């Protein structure tokens, strides 16, 4: 197990005054929002998403008619995309705005598109992530299909899954983990910040093998996954994050796991540096094309 002591200059994006009730789940953590440059925000902020519904999926599932916020490049110029999933009680802007400067730089903003869908009533699923999956249905399935709609909309515009990054914080991170197991592929990257695979009620953490059979046949070879969590997180246990990383490793993913000493339910600078490194690969690809 890798434990990392946070640097004293760690940038905590989330306030420590998150809201959580005993039965509400992962809780809400408020980002310290900074000003957003108008050029980074899509003018269609309030319009309903036009993403196609995957075949066989009911349009009556929860989240099917929520809005999507876009930042960065237009679809016509996009070569890479990042789908961001907010936490319980959050909004697309609450996760996207604090990460804008990490993702959109002078070298990426003309080709990188940020996609941030909204959860119905600001909640992807009603119960805690440790509850049996059936207790969070049909909301969890609706959330997974909502993310898949965004992925397919990008694919329809020529952006393949190996150019799509997906990640989230808290409940959005839990959704990311479950989505990856439902729709495995070679993605550009996925990140799970302060989250774990939903449905842990049915898993026995001490033996680890139990519950993993559910994911038999899932192939994540070629996909990198970053799992980060604080050992002082009161909402997501470090052991749950460790188990999540182990499941992804068993399914062939290239996993980086970090348990941060003294970190609560928040995101730290070291995690953002990982994402910054992934995004900088776009510039490297440009250099290769030009040589």
Note down, in words, how this protein is organized:
- An 8-stranded mixed beta sheet has the order 1-8-7-6-5-3-4-2, with helices on both faces.
- Helix content is 26%, strand content 16%.
- It has one domain (44-290): Alpha/Beta hydrolase fold, catalytic domain (Rossmann fold, 3-Layer(aba) Sandwich).
- α2 crosses α3 (171-182).
- The chain has 291 residues and is an alpha/beta fold.
Order of strands in the sheet with the most strands?
A: 1-8-7-6-5-3-4-2
Q: Would you tell me the overall average pLDDT?
A: 82
* CATH fourth-tier homologous superfamily: Alpha/Beta hydrolase fold, catalytic domain
Low-confidence region ranges: 7-25, 27-40, 42-51
Q: Using DSSP, what is the number of strands?
A: 8
Q: How many DSSP helices? A: 5
Secondary-structure element order, N to C: EEEHEHEHEEHEH
Q: Structural class, from helix and strand content? A: alpha/beta
Q: Would you tell me which CATH topology applies? A: Rossmann fold
Radius of gyration, in angstroms, nearest whole number: 18 Å
Main pleated-sheet profile: 8 strands, mixed
